[in-house]
Hints:
Blueprint: H1 3-10, E1 20-22, E2 30-43, E3 49-53, H2 54-59, E4 70-76
Antiparallel strand pairs: 1-2, 2-3, 2-4
Amino acid sequence: MTVGELQQLLADFDPAAEVVLATDAEGNTFSPLSDVSLGYYLEDSSYSGDFVSNENVDEDEDINVDNAPIAVALWPTN
């Protein structure tokens, strides 16, 4: 999902509504959204991978993000 697609999905919701994130795929628990950061998504498979923040890319010369898409990470409180 892209940021634009997410914006369209959220456009009709109350802007005061709390944003919560599932802590697992089964939806066993949820956590409030705590932070948002910009970086790159390094895909391992069609369903998982790693996120590298812009700060880490600047600090670690061994991280190669040449072909990685820019990504926005949503961080839960827990």
